[in-house]
Amino acid sequence: MLLEDLQVVLKVAEFRSITAAAASLDMSTATASAALKRVEKNLGVELFIRTTRQLRLSHAGERYIPQCEQALHMLDQAKQNMKHDLDTVDGELRIALSSDLGRNLVIPWLDEFMETHPKVSLKTNISDSDIDFYRDSVDIALRYGSPDNAKLYGFKICNVPVLLCATQTYLDRNGSPKHPHDLVTYNGLFYQLYDIIHDVWEFSDADTKYKIKMSGNRAANDGDLVRRWCVADKGLAIKSSLDMSADLLSGKVINVMPEFKPRSTELWLICPSRQSITPAVRLLRDTLQEKCTGILKQLIEKDFLDDSVLT
């Protein structure tokens, strides 16, 4: 028996008219009449006595209608309670964050988030290593790159251009490269993951792609440390525009050879299952999208990025 049919029955009992009940529910009289017949057939009794002039409750209807009304009220209350529970932002956020983005941008955002939603608690795993949701005791991970496992669920936060960065002091001391091929004489600051040093840098302009094997005297498995070396005049670094945003906007570093672009990436909030996507996670997703978009707009306004990044 459909709930919609029961609602029709209650309206017919209220108005003592199928036509008036149909009008109040914004449906045709025929549709309302068919709903009433379905309920009566299902129950095996007539709820209304119909005459040419009037419609009144039968003895069975007098007993059934109040119980039906009470049952629908309980169902509606249950639905409202469930909606309230789903809208409640609470519980523990166990989130994995990359070192640079996590420490310098996301942790302050999470502090703000928790001030707004004091029933939320936080556990963070800060590391640039790949996350194993079953090993690392985290429920969500904020990571560069789209999920490569079809079993995972994810929300794209934003597009993230990657930039070649250095300080003006370093460039004044060593000269400014004009072309990717010039980079072989410069000191690279490298990210290292599982003993693999990322020292082959890729660039492209309108027509051509370039792969440059760099040399350098510093490598780390911590992206934040690579950024700190760059800000300290130690060399050139390939970094996310989000990671470098504060340093770019403050003038501590500059975007080197902007006409030659490194490969861009994306920022994703990743979950191991649908059950991990709580109201708090959905609200955090919205917060991250808003915060990241705000930073990207600032970088666009200062001509570090073009506005295509927001499409």
Describe the secondary structure blueprint for this structure:
Layout: H1 3-15, H2 18-24, H3 29-43, E1 48-50, E2 55-57, H4 59-87, E3 91-97, H5 99-116, E4 120-126, E5 140-144, E6 153-160, E7 162-166, H6 168-174, E8 187-193, E9 196-197, E10 200-204, E11 209-213, E12 215-220, H7 223-231, E13 236-240, H8 245-250, E14 254-255, E15 261-262, E16 265-271, H9 279-301
Parallel strand pairs: 3-4, 3-5, 8-12, 8-13
Antiparallel strand pairs: 1-2, 5-16, 6-16, 7-13, 7-14, 8-9, 10-11, 10-15
Q: By helix and strand content, what is the structural category?
A: alpha/beta
CATH architectural type of the largest domain = 3-Layer(aba) Sandwich
The poorly predicted ranges are none
**Count of runs of 4 or more consecutive helical residues:** 9
Report Rg: 31 Å
The domain tally reads 3
- By CATH, the superfamily of the largest domain comes out as Periplasmic binding protein-like II
Give the overall shape: elongated
Estimate the helix proportion, in percent. Answer: 40-55%
SSE order in H/E notation? Answer: HHHEEHEHEEEEHEEEEEHEHEEEH
CATH class of the largest domain: Alpha Beta
Measured between the Cα atoms of the first and last residue, the distance is 47 Å
- What number is the mean pLDDT? 90
Q: Main sheet, how many strands, which sense, barrel?
A: 6 strands, mixed
CATH-assigned fold name of the largest domain: D-Maltodextrin-Binding Protein, domain 2
Question: Approximately how much beta-strand content do the residues carry?
Answer: 25-35%
State the total count of DSSP E strands.
16
